[in-house]
Design goal:
There is one protein chain. With 290 residues, the protein is an alpha+beta fold. The protein is 16% helix and 44% strand. The chain folds into 2 domains: 39 residues; 231 residues, TolB, C-terminal domain (Neuraminidase). It has 3 helices and 22 strands. An 8-stranded mixed beta sheet has the order 16-17-18-19-1-22-21-20, with no helix packed on it. It has a 4-stranded antiparallel beta sheet with strand order 2-3-4-5, with no helix packed on it. It has a 4-stranded antiparallel beta sheet with strand order 6-7-8-9, with no helix packed on it. The N and C termini lie far apart (95 Å).
């Protein structure tokens, strides 16, 4: 008579042991996948993107002190604004109304103008030596003019939309309405580098009109009354400039569009800002916002 009784056969025991091994393997695999995902998220934000690593402190906000108010041509759909040795240059948009201009600051009147063919929608401008560089919106075509005469010198092409452009003394810096900035060789117009812009909450898109000031890139944010100050090394927004309330209620009732156009006058250290179809151009000083 058998004195030992087992409910399970040896075959059943082997099956159970094999099942346990499979379960352990699956648990281990899931744990490893979880660790990899967590590490990847940490690595991509803290190491690959230095902008995120700096986001632990709140970005400062500046307001403005109004210094002067000047008339501005309310028919000008302002796309680019730049001072060069005290001379104000402006680029305007809309098909059939696009131009690059030299403007009298005090009167707002056009001193000299070069119109674009109707098929082009003018965008931002930058001054490089004795030339003015002008972008167009969707045509992927740019124009180079003599700075004094506005006579067309030649054209060039690029691979994205053209929104804003500025010059840092070495590279042209271009925006296309995304969160990306493009660094271009000013002679060949080839892109030699890109920079993605970040703020406290992640990517900052709709970068529009640009100006390079004292080692930082200033960018209008399309559709908003604010300007981002951007580090050209990290893409981090170092400060915001709140320009709300520039136009009076009466002016705002007119046929106006969004804030666009920021120029720096190195002769007095002030900013000059306006908007598309705005009747006024404002000279301001930046002040910390309380």
């Amino acid at each position: 008579m058998n004195t030992h009784f087992s409910y399970f056969s040896s075959y059943d025991v082997k099956i159970m042991e094999f099942s346990k091994t499979i379960i352990r393997f699956l648990i281990f695999t899931i744990a490893i996948i979880g660790i990899v995902i967590c590490f990847s998220k940490w690595y991509s934000t803290e190491l690959v993107n230095p902008a995120y690593a700096e986001q632990k402190s709140h970005t400062p906000v500046f307001g403005y002190k109004l210094v002067n108010t000047y008339p501005h041509n309310s028919d000008s759909f302002t796309q680019g604004l730049v001072f060069d040795k005290g001379v104000l240059h402006e680029s305007t948009g809309l098909n059939g109304r696009s131009a690059v201009k030299i403007v009298d600051l005090k009167t707002g009147k056009t001193i000299k103008s070069q119109e674009l063919p109707d098929r082009y929608f003018g965008e931002g401008i930058a001054v490089v030596d004795n030339k003015i560089i002008q972008l167009t919106w969707r045509s992927k075509m740019g124009f180079i003019y003599n700075k004094e005469t506005l006579k067309l010198i030649k054209k060039f092409s690029y691979q994205t939309q053209g929104w804003g452009i500025t010059y840092d003394g070495k590279y042209l810096i271009m925006s296309d309405g995304s969160a990306m900035l493009y660094f271009m060789d000013p002679n060949t117009f080839k892109v030699i580098g890109t920079l993605e812009v970040y703020g406290d909450s992640g990517k900052v898109s709709k970068l529009n009109e640009l100006e390079y000031i004292d080692g930082e890139i200033y960018a209008n944010i399309w559709g908003e009354e604010k300007i981002a100050r951007i580090s050209p090394k990290t893409g981090r927004v170092t400060a915001w400039i709140d320009l709300s309330g520039l136009l009076s209620d009466k002016d705002s009732e007119l046929r106006i569009d969004v804030l666009n156009g920021v120029a720096f006058n190195s002769e007095n250290g002030n900013l000059y800002v306006t908007g598309k179809l705005w009747p006024k151009l404002f000279e301001i000083e930046l002040v910390p916002k309380k």
